[in-house]
């Protein structure tokens, strides 16, 4: 997804990170529980993760 699509995500959407500047985030799946202009907060099976939108590409 491009940045425009990422910014239009809705809370409750399930996503998977396909590419990231932080390689430990690649493959992370979760539900969007909070979103700001530049970050999203995901609820994953391993806990809560706050992620910078400009650093990722999602599926």
Key terms for this structure?
59 residues, 49% strand, SH3 type barrels
Structure report:
By secondary structure, this protein is mainly beta. It has a single domain (3-58), classed as Ribonuclease P/MRP, subunit p29 (SH3 type barrels). The protein has one helix and five strands; from the N terminus they run H-E-E-E-E-E. The chain has a five-stranded antiparallel β-sheet with strand order 4-3-2-1-5, with no helix packed on it. A hairpin with an 8-residue loop joins strand 1 and strand 2 (29-35). It is globular and about 25 Å long. The mean pLDDT is 87.
Write the layout of secondary structure elements.
Blueprint: H1 3-7, E1 14-20, E2 29-35, E3 39-44, E4 47-52, E5 56-58
Q: Report the count of strand segments.
A: 5
Weakly predicted, low-confidence segments: none
Largest sheet: 5 strands, antiparallel
How confident overall, as mean pLDDT?
A: 87
For the largest beta sheet, what order do the strands appear in spatially? 4-3-2-1-5
**Cα separation of the termini:** 6 Å
Q: What is the C-alpha radius of gyration, as a whole number of Å?
A: 10 Å
Q: Report the helical percentage.
A: under 10%
Please count the helical segments. 1
SS strand fraction: over 45%
Order of helices and strands: HEEEEE
Oligomerization: single chain
| Overall CATH architecture | Roll
Q: Can you give me a brief rundown of this structure?
A:
It contains one helix and five strands, in the order αβββββ.
């Amino acid at each position: 997804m491009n940045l425009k699509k990422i910014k239009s995500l809705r809370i409750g959407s399930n996503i998977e990170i396909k590419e990231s500047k932080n390689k430990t985030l690649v493959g992370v799946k979760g539900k969007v529980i909070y979103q700001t202009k530049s970050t999203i907060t995901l609820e994953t099976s391993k806990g809560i993760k706050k992620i910078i939108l400009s650093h990722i590409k999602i599926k």
